Amino acid sequence: MLFEDTYLTIEKTSEATFRDRGSKFMGYAFPITSDQDIKSIITNLKQEHPKANHHCWAMRWSIDRSVFRINDDGEPSGTAGRPILNTLLSRNLTNIAVVVVRYFGGTLLGVPGLINAYKTASELALNETRIIEKTVNDVYTIAFDYLQMNDIMRVIKEDNLEILEQQFDNNCSIKVSIRKMQVNQTLNKLQKLSSVNANYNYTL
Cα(95)–Cα(169) distance, rounded to whole angstroms? Predict the structure, then answer.
């Protein structure tokens, strides 16, 4: 079986609100690139909603369905983070975080009611953005002499690589994003050039 090098994610941040018996559940969906992104997302939402009772969330940042994080933030175990995660799994979305901010309305919803509310708020938020397909890319830094600039740029153009960073001096470097299935082909071209080093950085 070939390595799967595409995945589904969301195009941009979105939000939606679900209400049930006085409680307000505000769903927010965010495209992310790593599990570290959740820290700033939660910090910003807590500043935006300082009086909210709960900030529950789930996130995925890998095409591996077993890689995820969830947080019930004080709600009964399994009633918030897991239903949010299940909406991501059911739509096969990754590189995404969904946070549901709850304002308690005074009436207890019970376990089924909470599960439904967090699931519905998540689904409504996802409905407000477009699902897009992206490729799994490896990021490499290519180091080379200035005189090899034309050769390097030709490879970048031929293989349709995205340039993320570049530094041109006597010793030059360009950070590029290469589609996973294309990595060996591109590295073979670069290795044929003298005094060129391509070092792996991370996977997007």
Answer: 35
Q: What helix, strand, coil percent values describe the chain, rounded to 5?
A: 30, 35, 30
pLDDT in tens, 146-158: 989 999 999 999 9
Q: How confident is the model at residue 171 (pLDDT cuts 50, 70, 90)?
A: confident
Separation between Cα atoms, residue 76 and residue 91, nearest integer Å: 25
Nearest to 52 by CA among 42, 62, 67, 63: 42
Distance CA 115, CA 79 (A): 5
Average pLDDT over residues 5-30: 97
Token representation of residue 104: 């308690």
Q: Is the confidence at residue 190, as pLDDT, over 80?
A: yes
Q: How far apart are CA 189 and CA 96, in angstroms?
A: 34
24, 59, 163, 174, 178 from 203: Cα distances, Å: 38, 17, 14, 16, 9
Does residue 2 carry a pLDDT above 70? no
Q: What SS3 state is found at 156?
A: helix
What pLDDT, on the 0 to 100 scale, is given for residue 1?
A: 34
Query: Rounded to an integer, what distance in angstroms lies between the CA atom of residue 78 and that of residue 112?
Result: 10
How does DSSP classify residue 94? -
